[in-house]
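thread: overnight batch results

M.L. [08:02]
morning all. the overnight job finished for the chain we discussed friday. pasting input first so we're all looking at the same thing
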Amino acid sequence: MILPIYAYGQPVLKKVGEPIDKDYPNLDELIKNMWETMYNAEGVGLAAPQIGLPIRLFLVDTVQSMEEGKEDEGIKRVFINAQKVQETGKHWDYEEGCLSIPNIRGDVSRPEVLRIRYMDENFEEHEETFDGINARVIQHEYDHIEGVLFTQLLKPIKKKLIKRKLDKISRGKADATYRLKFRT
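M.L. [08:03]
and the structure it wrote out:
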C-alpha cells in the first residue's frame, strides 16, 4: 500500500525515533509498504518518520541510481535501530533533496565514509562500512531517525534563500507527483 509522505512542518519529522523490537506490530507489512511508497515517489531512501512513525527504521536502495553496469556497487537494505559507529574521510558536497521537502535541493557536506551498526528486517545485527553515495544516502536517512532534515545542514545563505519555500510547504502548499500529508 502506498502511504502518504509527511511534508515539512509535520512535528514527527523533528522527533528522535524510538528503537523497535521484532514484535513491532505488522513490521513485515510496514516495510513492504515503505518500499512501495519510496518507489512510487521515485526516492532512493525512506525513513519511518516520513510516513508518520517516530521509530528507528529506514530503508535505502541506491542500486536503481547506479550507472548501467555498476548496479552491483549499490545497496538495497532495511536498517532497524541503526547507530552510527564512526564517520571518517574527507567531507564532500553533494546536492541532496528529500521526499518530505519537494522541489527543494541543496548542497550538503558529509564525510565520505560511514561505519554503522544496525539490524536487518530479520533482526540480525550487522556492522558495516559504506562510502560514497551509499554512505551519503544512509547518512541522510539516518538523520531522519534523529529528527534532522537536510535543510538544517545547508549553508546559512542557502537557508535564507529557501525559507519562503519551506514556509509554503509547512502551510500545505507544495506540488509533488506523490501524496503528501501536511500539518493540520
